[in-house]
Amino acid sequence: MDQLINIKEKFKIPKIGKLPLYLIIVVFVFLLAVLQDYIYSRIQNTGFYLSESSLYNTFWIFFIPLTIYANRLIKIVNPKNKFTKLPLSFGVGLFFSFLHIILFASLYVLVSSLIFTPTHRFSNIFYSALSNQLHIALLWYIIFPTIYMSKHKSTHIKKHYPDKIKLKIGSKILNVSSSTIQFISTDKPYSIIHTNDKKILDNKSLKEFETNLDPSVFLRVHRSSIINANYVKELKSRNNGDYDATLQSGKVIRLSRHFRNNWKQLIQ
Question: Quick check: 140 and 67 in contact, CB under 8 A?
């Protein structure tokens, strides 16, 4: 059955998450640490207990959620003064390092009280982790927020797109407000710019218009058309991956599944 979707607001730019990277790094280090314990036990001719080694190395697992929360905190604070970034990174690193060790020691004591006899004291585990893993936690929680801040800043530096574009009509140059452009289609070797009140023929290609217009507003939805997302009124599925977009003017534009990455936000 055809789906009818009313577009009430602009689409949102999708977020690109980094959790898989954290997961791969931490799981790899966790397995490596358990393997290290096993090799050490063989070299020293001591006993190796997988349950105890795995429990102690859950220290590495805490890096996943705490790194996410550290990055979220950095995003909320978002210091703009470069002189405040270093103290902030160090403060965040120190706070999350101690929080990490406290949570790890608490989990270790809780689980050990259920499966080990005798149980381990919190102070022993806490001071052991403090002396052996504090430097690792500090490096991790200082470096990752610093990297995150630099990437967060770079992703928010947006290219400036002019409010008007220049179109050549014969020997004349016409300045057209981009907000009045509903869609652009092709009539090779020309492009047709459809505004609120006229059609304009221009010799630039759709690729050139893609470069000159804001891609968060002007979406390449087909090899022969670009639409202004602000003018989309509703979408209707063709049940084959393609959609028909009805603009406010009543014009229907086909959204090709081959360009789905450009317009998929409209149906989310």
Answer: yes
- Measured between alpha carbons, how far apart are the two ends of the chain, in Å? 18
Chunked into runs of 10 residues, the chain (268 residues) has average pLDDT values of 43 43 78 90 87 88 86 74 74 92 93 83 91 90 73 59 85 89 91 92 91 92 94 93 93 93 87
Residue 129: closest CA among 175, 60, 65, 29: 60
Phi, then psi, of 25 in degrees rounded to 5: -65, -50
**Cα–Cα distance, 108 to 113 (Å, whole number):** 8
d(CA 259, CA 218): 13
- List the helix and strand counts (H, then E) for the chain: 7, 11
Strand, coil or helix: 267 = helix
**Strand pairing class (199-202; 218-222):** unpaired
Q: What is the pTM of this model?
A: 0.48
DSSP secondary structure string for all residues of 112-145: HHHH-SSPPPHHHHHHHHHHHHHHHHHHHHHHHH
Q: Which of 33, 29, 66, 60 is nearest to 48 (CA)?
A: 33
**C-beta atoms surrounding 220 within 10 Å:** 21
